[in-house]
Structures are given as C-alpha cells and as structure tokens.
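The protein record quoted for completeness.
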Amino acid sequence: MEKYLKIFESCRKEKGKELYKNNSVTYVINHNNIYYSKVVGNQDDYLIKIDNNNFNCTCYDDLSCKHIYATLLSINDNKYSSINLNELSKENLLKLIDFCIKKDSSIIHNIDLYIRKTNKNIEPLKEIKTFFDDFEEEFNNLIDDDNYEYDENVFIEYDNELINILKNIEKNDSDR
C-alpha cells in the first residue's frame, strides 16, 4: 500500500495525515484482500473500499481524496482487522445477516438479488442434468434392446432438445 501513498497531491496528503492522527479512521477491515473503512469527516462519515489499485470513497471528491489517504496510512501501519466469513458457523452467519438487516434494512435488497441470481443459475443446470439423465436412460434401453435398429431421428430429437435448452440459457443470461 505504500506505493499508493505517493500518488496523492500534497494538500490531500496533509489533510489525510490530519484525519489519521486525529483517529478519524474509525475502522479498517480486510476481507479477502479488500479493505473497507469508515472515516469521520467534518460534514459526514465516509465509507471507503480499496481493492488492489481501485479506490472508492463515498465523498464527492475524486479517487485520490483525503479519506482514502488516511485509510492507506492505517493499512500501511497495520491498523486494520481481518475477517474471514468462512470461519463462521452457519448459525453465526445467520445471526450476522440478521444483525446487518436490522442495522441497515436496504441490505435485504442485495440478499434478494443474490438469491434470485443463484436460483437462475441453478435451474438451467437442473434442466441440463435432466436432459442427460433422460438421454442416458434412452441410450441404455437401446443398447439393451436386442432388436434395436439404428434410427437417426431419435438422436436428432435429442440434439434439437439440447440446442433449445442451451439457447434458453443464453437468452436468460443476456436478459440479466
């Protein structure tokens, strides 16, 4: 993070150092190598996200604001916490989600979007699995049938069905 400290203008560096020294950076959390922080400003509290070389702040300033600089100073001085949600039990994850919803009810919208997206991704997979299960059963029946004579139309029907399934998946993906 030290390399990023050099890209800031001197006036932003000074103001960012002041914020840092005054403990205006209330927290910095590292989750999956993405840093999230909150900086108390003169007019508002600002939320910062630092992901590799992408900086975001909720302030009106550009990408090299004093709040980001103060956050980078905290990170550079190892003044941050790390969390790993994978270490939480299912029960504690549910409690965390409930706590977050109570603190900020708008999060429920993001949870709903995630669930809808996940379900949309699962349904086509189920459809493809069903198709191949049916095809395998039909194929095994044909192999076991001593009187079977090759009929190209049976395979053409399966080809067409698979093509339609894949077209629907592609259409649904483009609609999202």
